[in-house]
Structure formats: C-alpha cells, structure tokens
Amino acid sequence: MVSVLYVKTALQQVIAAAPDQRGRSVAAAVACWLAVTPGAALAAVRLGGWERGPLVHLVAYTPYAAGLSVLPLLGALGLRRWKAAAVAALSLAALTSVVLPRALPGVAADVGGPRLRVLTANIKHGEADPAALVELVREHKIDVLAVQELNAGFIAAFDAAGIGAELPHRIVDDPAIYVNGGLYSRVPLTDPGIHQHESGFTQAYATVTLPGGAPLVIESVHSCAPLSLADVPCWFAGLRGQRAATSDGPVRLLMGDFNATLDHGPMRALLATGYEDAAANMGHGLAGTWRPIDHGFSLPPIAIDHILIDPRLAIREYAVWPLPGSDHSAVFAEVSLPPV
C-alpha cells in the first residue's frame, strides 16, 4: 500500500507542477506513459525472446518486474488515464502469466524405479567452504554431486574435509581453470567424459546406474555468464550447445550453473526439447540461487542454477540451501528413475 501511494503521489506531483489545467492534463498523460512503458517493453522482450545486450540482464529480473507492474496500473487507474491503464493491465497479465506457473505448488511424482538424491553447487572459484559442502552431502544423504568452478586448492581441501568417505567416485576436469566442472558420486561413474564448449567451458558427465533403474547420464553444467556485452554471444552459444532432451535416447539429467533464468529465450528453447525444471515442477521456481556478494552493490537473488530432468524422470523433492563462501546456493532434488 505504501508503494502504491508513493507512485500515485509522485505522479500527482508531476501533474501539479504544470501551470494550468491543460498543462496538467498533458503532464498526467506523460507521467502515466513514462510509468507504464518500461513494464510494457519488458513484457514484449520477454514474450518475444528478444533479449540482446543489456536486456539479457534485465530479463533475469522478470519475476520482480511482474510484481512491481501492478503499481503503474494502479497509478493510471487513479488518474483515470484509461489507455495507459489498459496497456499496464496487459503488461501485468503478460508478465504474471509467464511467472506465476513456476510458483504454483507441484505434486511429487514417481515413475516406478529407484530414487537418486542429487545436489549441484557452484563454489565461486573454489572460495566456498569445503567442510560445509561435505556436511550438506552427509546430512542430506546425497548420491551425486555436481560442482562448478573447481580448482586444485578446493579439490585438496574437499578431500581433507572428507568428501571421499561420502562420495568415493569422481570425474574432474583440468583444475587449472575455473570454468571446469566435476561429478562426485556414491555409486560408480561409468562412461565418463568431458563436454567442451567453444568458449572453453567444460562440463563433466558420466552414467550412473542404480539397482533396478535405467542408466542415467548426468552432466555438470556450467555455461558462459553474460558479464559484459562482449560475453553475450558466448552466453547464447553455451546454452544452445547443451544436449537436448530425447524420448528414446539415454535418460538424461542436467544440473549446474546455467547462468540463465527460466525467462531467458535460450533457456526456454532448451526446456522446449523436453526437459522439466525441478524447481518449477515443485512450485519453487521463484527461489533465487545466485546473488552478488562482492561487487560493491546489492541485487535481489535470481534463479540461474537448475536441475533439468528429461520426460522419463520425475521429481520427488526440491530444495535450495545456503553455501557459505559462495555467491550461489546449493540446489537439491530427489529424482525418481524409470525401472529397467
């Protein structure tokens, strides 16, 4: 209510500054359209998949824009600017329609096979607390852990903290570069490999087989971040280079730092191949997984870490847990595998 009154008061102050009635009318129209246009533009970009350049960053905050888009609508209604109110209402409806479904409570499903507990964690160039991550693995009985931004120092500290006792099997790419990834597992990892992007980012993958369950290919995803305008082509290429879901090939699960939200066009295109997002599936799609902690500014968290399952899998549980030392949270899911 305070925010609504603030917007309405601000618009009224702009109008009151006009010298006469006609001037006030023009000022009211201008003020309303200035308030309404940003939300309408973002809705168009989001629906059209037109994010380019700096718009990539703005689209990441679509859920927040959806919540705030009610304010221009109320302001326009209060000032009886019906055309502006109509545009604001359409913008609100458009943004809400794409954001709300991921927050609706889901139902835990089961496809009849064994269950696998998986966790993904971006450890921020090895700065995360290795003991805290081992404790998460131990406390929540994790079967497979995907890690991004590994380095030699963290690998050694992770071993010293006891990860080998919990997850004795592993595949880790060259620890000399932070863009690598790794998998740690309670059960043997077979057919391991490294999926390398044109950008140089690498993703470890392997097959996990549980008794009574179909073999599952798991990949630790780390896609290029759009930190600057120059990085945006790399960002697009990284997301487009992810392996598509199939209905008749290997059963597949992707988890890691996608550096993209469910509102980004390339991410939606990947989901359109058949994947389901575990968070959205369980009604937790608005839970943020990343926030800047050392950039000299504060922004609300956004969901860029994901667990994607192909159509033959189902989600039983989902959670996001803090990871001390990292700007990412750890993301957990319990997955139901198809039987053999």
Automatic annotation (TrEMBL):
Family annotation (InterPro entries): Endo/exonu/phosph_ase_sf (IPR036691), Endo/exonuclease/phosphatase (IPR005135)
Top-level taxonomic group: Bacteria
Transmembrane feature ranges: 26-49, 55-77, 84-104
Listed SUPFAM superfamilies: DNase I-like
Gene3D superfamilies for the chain: Endonuclease/exonuclease/phosphatase
Domain Endonuclease/exonuclease/phosphatase: 119-328
Protein name, UniProt field: Metal-dependent hydrolase, endonuclease/exonuclease/phosphatase family
Organism per entry: Asanoa ishikariensis
